[in-house]
Write a structure and sequence with these properties.
Strand order of the largest sheet of chain B: 8-10-7-11-9-12-13
Largest sheet of chain A: 5 strands, parallel
Number of strands of chain A: 11
Distance between the termini of chain A: 37 Å
Shape of chain A: globular
Order of helices and strands of chain B: HEEEHEHEEEHHEHEHEHEEE
Oligomer: heterodimer
Structural class of chain B: alpha+beta
Largest interface: A-B, 43 and 26 residues
Number of strands of chain B: 13
Radius of gyration of chain B: 21 Å
Number of helices of chain A: 17
Radius of gyration of chain A: 21 Å
Low-confidence stretches of chain A: none
Low-confidence stretches of chain B: none
Strand order of the largest sheet of chain A: 2-1-7-8-9
Strand content of chain A: 15-25%
Mean pLDDT of chain B: 94
């Protein structure tokens, strides 16, 4: 099993195979400008880290959309998490990369921890459930961050906590849904975006159906792609071919991981525990049905209700253009704060925080772009 | 179970007993046994390489090492990077009240064994006990000195254009082993820390290949950070080939699972050597003859263009900048 996976990986990283795909991409585009947007932080990181960005034909522009779940976590949501962290008897369990994200007044979970709050990094929501089981006198609040990919884990954690009768476990659901955000982007960026590279991890759960509207309603080519260099190139070639033929559709180029109907079982767990609701995306604003909240049957696990936490609106930091960057309207270096007031060491906007944020990627790799 | 009490840091009989029962019996020697206020060293001649390092690792024990072996090898290796033969260490413990004595004994065992392997003596030390909760089980600070044998001590400032860069083995093993132990990541449990004393290997390279321009050990911040330091200090460009950097498959898998980059992970038994190409073969042969350098490889070269930057030729034929690590690497969401 392992060796065959390694074999697949070595093919998908083979420089000659990648070169042949790059040639095919160039030939298909025939010199026409082609601006594709990915909406997955892992794609952002993979495209930069593999050096693929330096190899793309000159007429291909890579736009990094709102695909980093940490980056789109709204200031008000962080404000709630910080307020919770300050309450006595509460321990916040979170994924690691949320730690440095700046919230209201530049405060972060990392700075709250330095001030004495109890914040622990976990690798899985079930680790947070175990924390609750092992610390019966402490209220454990898990910060549910991420898209369709991580929501089933949060849902499973809630169900596990119910079965194990853990009254000291609750969730702040900041989960977001990708298709509603893509609808907004497709509607507002017809001029700036020519095609969408769809997120492989999200599609592994949702399947292709929730993305069909891109081709049907907006005439946009869309392809699900994996994360090895050749995976990404295969998807880009598919996008270019659709673009050249003028017949957009939604195709799957990550078939070894993504079934066309996704993962129905993960979806059913999610559907039981969560319901879609309007959600604030950092940089994009309120997106109708753009997030998940706990369903009425699981309301007693809602940390906001349980601990009387309110979502106070927070001002976006002055001059921060993360919103325009997430929509592909600006490249990170065009933001007046980029590299000056806003750096990975002291991020102002969310795109600078996570290694998967587009500003952080530009800052890190930016002065060696093709 | 016997535990460390606050008394043991009081300087009285309880302190004496702790030192005699646990430390002297495990890494005692003629100089330490004197138990004066300071150690008298009569056989060291200048120039001398001096270094200090503190160790706060959690968990205290991990596959391939412990805070004890780390505290010895960390300082030994820092001294060795200057072309010096490590001789003497000092060692200061801060212990948390309530620490099981058996834990301290195991750590002291590891220190004794590591000193033996590295050929160094612990000649002075101190023990304090902090109230429960005021420190995390055990912190150790070691410092050490070594006699510089290299006529031109290597330094991060000495890299020259067209020099080649040699790496002594696979990167990321130590950090991944500690992370796996810390968070009970069972699927990574076969990864071992590379914690090892490198002084003998470095001396053999210096003897076989002549003076190297740079020796550095890529500890915290990993290989990428060390290469950036060399690029900045020497005001040169660094170009490396991704394909030539040894990384164990299980470390690659762990990194891909946790969203980490092996080039930024700490190593505790690896070194980077920069020297003229004509002497690279001799250096490689000497390195590979050591048990700690079997996988040594040339991973890149120094260039006069783009001073201060590290460029990596990627496996698919692209290029990217390898920047300095910002803060700590944080595991990512998905």
């Amino acid at each position: 099993m392992t060796s065959s996976l390694n074999e697949i990986q070595s093919v998908l990283r083979d420089p000659r195979f990648c070169r042949s795909l790059l040639d095919r991409l160039e030939k298909t585009l025939d010199g026409k400008p082609f601006r594709f947007m990915e909406v997955c932080g892992t794609h952002t990181a993979a495209i930069f880290q593999s050096g693929l960005r330096s190899l793309l034909p000159k007429n291909v522009a890579h736009l990094s959309g709102p695909g980093c779940p940490v980056c789109v976590t709204h200031e008000t949501e962080l404000g709630v998490a910080l307020a919770a962290a300050e309450k006595p008897g509460i321990l916040i369990a979170t994924y690691g990369d949320l730690l440095r994200v700046p919230g209201p007044a530049g405060r972060s979970l990392a700075s709250a921890r330095a001030d004495g709050a109890r914040v622990e990094i976990v690798y899985s929501p079930l680790d947070a459930v175990n924390l609750a089981a092992n610390n019966p006198d402490t209220e454990i609040i898990f910060l549910g961050v991420g898209f369709e990919t991580t929501a089933p884990g949060s849902a499973a954690a809630i169900k596990t906590a119910r079965v194990r009768n853990l009254g000291n476990f609750s969730l702040l659901s900041f989960h977001k849904l990708v298709p509603p955000a893509l609808r907004l982007l497709a509607a507002e960026n017809k001029e700036t975006v020519n095609a969408f590279l769809l997120p492989g991890h999200v599609a592994a759960i949702t399947g292709l159906a929730p993305f069909e509207f891109l081709a049907e309603e907006f005439n946009q080519p869309a392809a699900v792609g994996g994360f090895e260099p050749a995976d990404i190139l295969l998807a880009l070639v598919a996008l270019a071919e659709q673009s050249a033929s003028g017949s957009p559709s939604v195709v799957n180029r990550y078939e070894r991981a993504v079934k066309n109907d996704g993962n129905p079982r993960a979806r059913s767990v999610c559907d039981e525990v969560f319901v879609p609701a309007n959600a604030n995306w950092r940089g994009l604003g309120l997106i109708p049905c753009g997030g998940l909240i706990l369903s009425p049957a699981y309301e007693n696990f809602d940390a906001a209700k349980k601990h009387d936490l309110s979502f106070n609106s927070v001002q976006t930091p002055n001059g921060c253009r993360c919103g325009a960057i997430l929509q592909g309207k600006l490249a990170p270096p065009q933001c007046p704060l980029f590299g000056k007031a806003c750096t990975p060491a002291s991020p102002v906007g969310p795109c600078m925080v996570s290694t998967e944020g587009s500003c952080a990627a530009y800052f890190k790799y930016g002065d060696y772009l093709a | 179970m016997k535990k460390v009490l606050l008394d043991a840091g009081g300087g009285g009989r309880a302190s004496q007993r702790l030192v005699a029962d646990i430390f002297l019996s495990r890494f005692g020697n003629d100089i330490l046994a004197g138990l004066d206020d300071a150690a008298l060293l009569t056989d060291v001649s200048a120039p001398i390489s001096v270094s200090a390092d503190s160790f706060v690792v959690t968990p205290l024990f991990f596959p391939g090492g412990s805070i004890g072996s780390l505290a010895v090898n960390g300082t030994v290796n820092d001294i060795a990077m200057l072309g010096a033969r490590p001789l003497y260490l000092t060692c200061a413990f801060i212990l948390e009240e309530g620490l099981p004595l058996e834990t301290l004994e195991r750590v002291a065992d590891d220190m004794g064994e590591a000193c033996e392997k590295a050929g160094v003596k612990i000649v002075a030390g101190d023990t304090k006990v902090a109230p429960a909760g005021a420190c995390d089980k055990m912190f150790i600070t070691t410092s050490g000195i070594g006699e510089v044998y290299a006529p031109h001590p290597p330094s991060g400032h000495n890299a020259k254009p067209d020099d080649v860069i040699i790496l002594s083995g696979s990167v990321g093993d130590h950090a991944m082993a500690v992370m796996a132990a810390r968070d009970d990541l069972d699927f990574l449990s076969n990864i071992k820390s590379d914690c090892a004393p490198l002084a003998a290997m470095i001396e053999s390279v210096e003897n076989a290949a002549g003076p190297a321009h740079v020796f550095r050990d890529p500890t915290r911040g990993g290989l990428a950070t060390t290469l950036n330091e060399i690029a900045e200090q020497s005001a040169v460009g660094v170009v490396i080939d991704e394909d030539k950097i040894p990384v164990k498959p299980e470390v690659v898998d762990g990194c891909s699972f946790l969203g980490l980059d092996p080039l930024y992970l700490a190593n505790e038994g690896k070194c980077v050597c920069v020297l003229p190409e004509a002497r690279a073969e001799a250096a490689l042969t000497a390195m590979r003859a050591s048990p700690y350098g079997k996988e040594a490889a040339v991973i890149g070269r120094i260039s006069s263009s783009r001073p201060g930057k590290v460029i990596m030729n990627t496996g698919i034929g692209g290029q990217r900048i390898l920047g300095m690590l910002e803060g700590a690497q944080l595991p990512r969401i998905c």
